Amino acid sequence: MSDHRLRRREFIQSTGLTAGIAATAGCIGGGGGSGGGGGSTSQPPGENVEAASKIQFISESTPPSQALRSIVGRFTERTGIEVEFTLTPLLNYTEKLSSDLTSQAGNYDAVYVDPYNIGAPYYPDLEPLDGYIKQNDYDMDDHIDIHISACSQYGGENTSRALPYDCPTILLAYRGDVFDEYGEQASSDLGFQAEPSPDMTWSQYAEIARWINENVPDDVVPYGTGHMAKQHQSLANEFEMLQWAFGGTQLEGFDGKSPQIPEDPAPQFTSDASVEAAKFYTTLVDEIAHPASTTWDWSGVAQAFANGKIAMAPEWHEFNGLFSDPESSQVVDAVRWTLAPSGPAKNRNVQAHYGGSGIGINKYASDAKRKAAWQFIEWTTSPDIQFELLKAAGGTPTRRSVYERDPVAQAIDQPTAESEFPNVVPPVLEGWKDENIGQRPHHADWLQLEQVIYTEGSKMVNVNKSPQGAMESINNGFSNVL
Fold first, then answer.
1. Which pLDDT does position 414 carry in this prediction?
2. Which residue would you say has higher pLDDT here, 313 or 30?
3. Which of 220, 404, 440, 466 is most buried, by the most CB atoms less than 10 A from its CB?
């Protein structure tokens, strides 16, 4: 192993990152609005209401939303409605939008609806869209089922509060060039196929990453893997996927296959499966992954992969746009995708973690603004625009009909290096199958609950808190919130 391959703790000591690592992250506050006062019912503004000439759209700064901003001039040319974008990181977006909804200020008209940070706690403050859908003959049935259940409906209602728009899903990205050159030797040394595939287990993944650390020259790739283990929601997302894969769960009676909350939910972090997942995650981050992993969220991992620092990484598939951009990526022609590793659970495996989002209308906007906002989200979620975002940003559409278009269907069935459609499409479609997918519950306080996970998880991978102790602390934190 090269001398510069510091272990994670040496890296932390050398950069002073231990300071403040155990501090609790700022809480955004859940609970949402009551749905009372102001705003409208499920009926859209009447035809005599003229749409506003300008609206405000707020979104997490995702690759599809960035691409959408670059083409929104077409919408303005078509409708005369200008759209001003506010794109910020997830927690900043959450703080801005939740404050606006709680105060009923109506400063944002069209709103990106993250299911867990906004949808579950604040859905009463979002305009019901069923009247708009019916009045405009909007084809809701064209959206893939998982996106409707995950991104549109909340609180046990059969009411659409957002239209499915964006579907980030954690898969496994890996460097095909590394495995083309070294995969045969790795397979021979390890006794199993080294190149990642849906059949790879998490224990094999760790062995492959360690083999790369020890055998592949640094100028090819310094580390076998990197992880989003910063004290951030990203750590919670990554650990949740591992927890499911090991046969654990966050709440008793919740298997991650539906966002519905079980009755009387109780935390399940001290189960044998959850503790084993925690032990594995600690070893993976502490002993094998790039030592900067505890400073990276999903964006950090994506940039490290694009910069050629790591050979494999669980990552939200939307970053494929970054990986394939020659101006921002050193691995443009080398990126491959597959499902995340499997097992060891046999009865409840998860090889993809579903995020997803919709776009909704602020209930407290004026009639004219709500009418304009509907036109914007109808355009944004249309098949033609979703097709554009597939090509431009690597985002994968929520509509069935886009995948049935000849060029997309052909690229899925017979992928080629020259295809204009990203090679992430086939594995993400596979990941959305019920047997592979994992979803978090639509719990109104899930943001606070995930804060407990990533706060205690950060102590586990940074300051030597034992996996057992971390899981006990998360259990206690969940019990306090629940």
1. 77
2. 313
3. 440
